[in-house]
Amino acid sequence: MKQHGNAHDNPADRTGAVAARMRPGAIGVGRAAILLVVAIALQAGGNVCLSMGMKQLGSVADMTPAAWVLVARTAVTSPTLLVGIGCLAGFFFLFGYILARVDLSVAVPVISLEVAVNVAAGHWILGEQVSALHWLGTALVTVGVALVGLSARPKLEHHL
Amino acid sequence: MGWLLIAIMVVSDSGSDILMARGMRQVIDPPSRGLARLLAVFRAALRNPSLFGSAALGTVHLGAFLALLSFWDLSLVIPAAALDYVVGTLGARFLLGESVTPLRWVGVCLISAGVALASVS
């Protein structure tokens, strides 16, 4: 008679299979939530600082060679821009840490909220005008980024 | 000029990612542990042309982002920068011939529609 069971019918084997799927150094839900919130705050805070610093500098929309030199010089001398770049560097390393320890099906959709958080920061902190249509567009982009991120999940997990 | 800078951001970011992936696979192959091996990987990374190219394109991306922030609102730049996913997907499908999942196509359509709504309002 054909056996319909498999190795996972044994509780000990099932536990082993689950353990094998977990990432080394996986962290708990509470700690993961805190890290994700900190990552989003670093990213949005960094972008707010960059926006403030560049608005203080004035428009370089003409993009002449002199404008590029001015942007480069300002990027390494303006305290506001340096703080912004520091925040984004912190986000980069923290997000790498999160990706190695949190399930991508959780990390990617949560991190995609950064689009909406940035728009909210632009509105509430920088005083930018954001219409209802703009909010709707932002919501669509946020969901779209989450879907694109999730669709890359098997490939990403293969490389992690 | 704003959309030109968005295009520069998108292309330089995608190019930087591709070169970073290629370079890291070259210097960390095979994966191994240990301080001596780590230092060897670091030295190899400093001599790797792909990683240099990635850093250069990353610098261009940051420069375009900063320039854009000097005259565009952050609340428009960030959603518009998500066009990176759209261009990356179109490039993967039509230039590299990769298969793209329906879920990804839905995401690309939502991003495109979202950027259009955010930019016209």
- Give the % helix of chain A: over 70%
Radius of gyration of chain B equals 17 Å
**Content-based structural category of chain A:** mainly alpha
Largest sheet of chain B: none
Question: What count of helical segments of chain A does DSSP give?
Answer: 8
β-strand number of chain B: 0
The largest contact between protein chains, plus residue counts on each side, is: A-B, 53 and 40 residues
Total count of strands of chain A: 0
**Radius of gyration of chain A, rounded?**
22 Å
Helical region count of chain B?
6
- What does the overall shape of chain A look like? globular
| Strand proportion of chain A | under 5%
Low-confidence segments of chain A: 1-22, 155-160
Q: Spell out the helices and strands of chain A N to C.
A: HHHHHHHH
Number of domains of chain A: 1
| Topology of chain B as a string of helices (H) and strands (E) | HHHHHH
- Report the end-to-end length of chain A measured between terminal Cα atoms: 41 Å
Uncertain regions spanning at least 5 consecutive residues of chain B: none
Overview of this protein structure:
The complex is a heterodimer of chains A (160) and B (121). Chain A is globular. Chain A has one domain (26-159). With 160 residues, chain A is mainly alpha-helical. The model of chain A is unreliable at 1-22 and 155-160 (pLDDT under 50). Chain A has helices at 11-21, 29-57, 65-77, 79-101, 104-111, 114-124, 132-151, 153-159. Chain A starts with 10 loop residues before the first helix and ends with a helix. In chain A, helix 2 (29-57) crosses helix 6 and helix 5 packs antiparallel against helix 7 (132-151). Chain A is 76% helix and 0% strand. Chain B is an all-alpha fold and 121 residues long. Chain B folds into 2 domains: 1-72; 82-121, no CATH class. Helix content of chain B is 81%, strand content 0%. Chain B is globular, with a radius of gyration of 17 Å. At the A-B interface, helix 2, helix 3, helix 6 and helix 7 of A face helix 3, helix 4 and helix 6 of B.
